[in-house]
Amino acid sequence: MQIYNRHQIAEVVKLDCAALEAVEAGFAALGRAEVEMPPILSMNIAESNGEVDVKTAHIHGWPRFAIKISPGFFDNPSLGLPSLNGLMLLFSAKTGLVDAVLFDEGYLTDIRTALAGAIAAKHLSRTNSQRVAVIGAGVQAELQVAALRLVRDIREVHVYSRDPSKAQAYATRMQDQYALNVKVHDNAASACAQADIVVTTTPAREPVLNWSDLPKGVHVTAMGSDNPHKNELHPTILASADVLVVDRISQSRALGELHHAPALQREVLELGSLISNQQSVRNSDQQITVCDLTGTGVQDTAIANYAARLLEDA
To answer: SUPFAM superfamilies from the entry (predicted)?
Structure first.
């Protein structure tokens, strides 16, 4: 058994096209029903504004499966600590023995979450998309845009955060690190007005985005709602979008955006099925597409297998 720390993992696993292909392969396997994936084990620790999720999946034919333990304690920044942490345990799919402990402190979760957003945009946004609006100004607000650049020619970023100082710091960081043109807005509607892609990256408990905020032709990726008490999109968005996609229907109904629209009666597609069937659902530049990403165990097993291969070769 090998134990790898965050530094070792980050040295070999990057936010790049190879990692994207690994996560996309996991989604495709899910779409082909080649995955065993139980519901998420989730526990809230209300007195500390915290939560802990345990996710796992086995992809048929893959050498290893991962079990991920992921705590999120959202008051940690005030203590000088990161909000997210965790590790992945990697087991042999043949013997059940532990192959490796990936003590990544949440790094692989950050990477696979950002890549899932890029994969959603790859299959749902207009191919000529260049302008992205980001709601939120944390780690994922940065990584989602960085990952989008793998699949779209992103040139312009519009950001809105409830904390103007965080939004300004985000703008400076994105300009310095990625040479992007970034504009800070004082409300979500203004940020979205000219966007080709909108990404919501918040732990919000009430909608941060309304249907009236969305311009024609935009693609929306909502990635913050991964617990029943979280909600980023007004239910009208789910009802009115031309195309509605989720990573896992049962999971979104239990703890994602579908959880907040129980009476919704419409077609809901799964991202893995679109990928495995090579199905194109955008047939007009005027369509509004929406993808709700709650974060699946198959993403964790995919990125953990990919990381293990690179670490073994390092």
So the answer is: NAD(P)-binding Rossmann-fold domains
